[in-house]
Amino acid sequence: MTAFESVSKGLEEALAFASGDLAGAKVHEVTVAEVDVAEVRQRTGLSQAEFAKSIGVAKGTLLNWEHGRRHPTGPAQVLLALIDKKPSVVQDLLRGA
């Protein structure tokens, strides 16, 4: 199968899935644990402003998460779960960049 045929087949499968045809579809569900954002930040030793900047969010967003008015979702939730497991992960990766 050529690369073009492979891509075409993949696109056809994606369109079928989007239309509700689940036959032959592989669906991967990932569950990311919720974290206590304030606790995670405190374990990094960073201020609210420093932590917000280090993960690329506005300080107001961080405050909303810490006070429970909003909850991180998607990539932010994954990043916070990683930081929960290893508080230095962001600094380690940025130093290596």
Automatic annotation (TrEMBL):
Name listed for the protein in its UniProt record: Antitoxin HigA-2
Coiled-coil ranges (or none): none
Keyword entries, A-Z: DNA-binding, Plasmid, Transcription, Transcription regulation
SUPFAM superfamilies: lambda repressor-like DNA-binding domains
SMART domains named in the record: HTH_XRE
Pfam family of the protein (one): HTH_3
InterPro entries, sorted: Cro/C1-type_HTH, HTH-type_reg/antitoxin, Lambda_DNA-bd_dom_sf
GO MF annotation terms: DNA binding
Domain called HTH cro/C1-type: residue spans: 37-90
